[in-house]
Structure formats: structure tokens, C-alpha cells
Design goal:
CATH superfamily: 2,3-Dihydroxybiphenyl 1,2-Dioxygenase, domain 1
Number of domains: 1
Oligomer: single chain
Strand content: 35-45%
Amino acid sequence: MSESLDSTTNTSTNTSTNTTENSTADTRIDLGPMVQVGIIVHDAEAAVAAWTSRFKLAPAHFVDWPIPGKNLEETATYHGRRGNFRMRLAFLQAGPMQIEFIQPLEGDNIYSDFLNEHGEGLHHLLFEVEDPAAVAAGLGATVLQSGGSSLRPGAIWSYLDTQEMLGAMIELRTKI
């Protein structure tokens, strides 16, 4: 669909044509709100310092995952098999958007894979959905890695193999 804004009249003109508007149901998947961008880094503390020294952001919240005693390691998967990895997470809030810095610490995981292949950089976009498994199935996307949320008890996060399909990795988290 293309839209144009006529600057002289300040009105929007929709130039798309929808030939199936009344004949079929919309089968597109509702992703809900995008709530986070994830950045893979070598050092979470240094990344936070770089951002907070330049931007007016509240202090970061740091989490080492999995949190001891929470049994989150029982939820970990990596490429369809049980995962055994650790990471340091740092969260900054920028308005409604959360910035997550992920520092891989040990074990096989998609964060170390990303660092080895690309170096530090933008890793994923996170959306909250009612049923992450249904969204993954609807897209025909493989779950690369998943685990239990340290910030939202009971929620599961799942990274989908969507790089070739969408040009970006999508992370889904159960909406609680």
C-alpha cells in the first residue's frame, strides 16, 4: 500500500487497491506492540555507560540469566534442544521502548553466534503476543532459542529464525 500526504491540503490519500476486501478474511498475524530492541555486546556495563553518558536515561537494570533459584534454566532451548547458557542483561527504558543489551557469558547460544558472525550490533525486535508458539507456527518460522522471562514471571521468550524472511530477527514474549 502506498500513501501520500498532499502538503497543500494536509490530507492523506490512499492509493492501494484491495481486490479481496470483501471476499476473504485477513490472515495476517497480529504482532501487538513492539516493546524492545536488543543489542548484542561484549560488555553490558560498558554499553550502558556509553548510552547513559550521552542520553538522559534512567539507570539500567542488570540481570544475570538464569537467575539462581528461579528454575529458568529448565526453560532454556537452543536450536530445538535443551540449552545450557548464561548471559548478562542490561535494560534501559527510552519512553515506551526498552533497550536490552545482551552480553553472552557461557554456553552455546544465539548471542555468541551473533557476536562471532557479525560483532556487536542490533540483534532483534521484541513483540508481546498472546501465543508465541502460534505466531511462530503461523509464520512457519523455527524457534532458534527460548527461555523463561526474568522480568515477567510466567512469560516465555522465543527468538524466531526470521532473518531471511523479514530482514530482522523477531523475538516474541508471552503477554502477561
